[in-house]
Each structure stands twice: as C-alpha cells, then as structure tokens.
Write a structure and sequence with these properties.
The structure is a single chain. This protein has 127 residues and is mainly beta. It is 6% helix and 50% strand. The chain contains two helices and nine strands, in the order αββββββαβββ. The strands form two sheets. Strands 3, 4, 7, 8 and 9 form a five-stranded antiparallel β-sheet that branches.
Length: 127
C-alpha cells in the first residue's frame, strides 16, 4: 500500500517521508530510505514495526546517510532482519506481514509518516 505521491513531493506537506524499501534476498534483509526536512542538527529517525497488528512493536533506529546539496533534506537509512531470522521470537510465521510507520524527532517535536494513517504494510510469503 505505497503512497501514489512522490516521496520528495510528500515533504511539502509533512516533515518525514519513507522514500523507498528494497529486499536483499541472499541476506533476508529489508532496507529502507527515509527523507526528513533538515530543521535542526540534532534529530532522530525511528522505524516502528509490528508483526501482530500493533499489540507489540519493535523500534529500529535509522542512521544518517547524507544531506542534500542545499542542506534542506537529510537522508536516513535502516536495515531490518526479516522473518526467517525473527521466528525464534515467535513474532511471525511463514506467511505473515508487518505494519510500519516512521517517526522523526527534532527540536522537541515528533513527526510521523504513517502513510496517511494507513501505515505501510509488508507481506511475506513462504516459498
């Protein structure tokens, strides 16, 4: 359920935008990129994920990667070990999904990209 608006264009109306997700099959790794408006030096970006419809969640910290040429935007990246490695936690099964949202904390405020309150949903299936 990906937004139809370009991630950079979404920053016109919000402070944070999930730019992309990619899958590395050999490593069973989900990678993502997040854009934020650069309004202060101190900031944090966290990806919040749930495998059970938000009964519990996991927070994954994103890492600052680079700033835009004009310093208006910052790019953060994150990596998530996927279900085959999380099964020992009893969080998921062979064909489960994950809901996620992105939190951006800056200047004492908290901003979210939760796909217009629909969250971002990822579905894993068994081979």
């Amino acid at each position: 359920n990906w937004p139809s608006v370009n991630p950079t264009d979404r920053l016109v109306s919000q402070m944070v935008s999930l730019e992309s997700l990619s899958w590395e099959n050999k490593l069973n790794l989900l990678k993502g990129r997040v854009l934020v408006r650069n309004i202060a030096f101190e900031k944090s970006v966290t990806i919040r994920l749930s495998f059970n419809h938000w009964k519990t969640w996991i927070d994954v910290e994103a890492t600052h990667k680079e700033s835009s040429v004009d310093s208006a935007l910052d790019l953060f990246t994150f990596e998530l070990v996927t279900p085959s490695h999380l099964s020992y936690l009893n969080l998921i099964n062979a064909s489960s999904g994950c809901s996620m949202a992105v939190r951006y904390r800056v200047s004492g405020q908290e901003h979210w990209d939760n796909n217009d309150e629909r969250n971002f949903n990822i579905q894993w299936t068994s081979n």
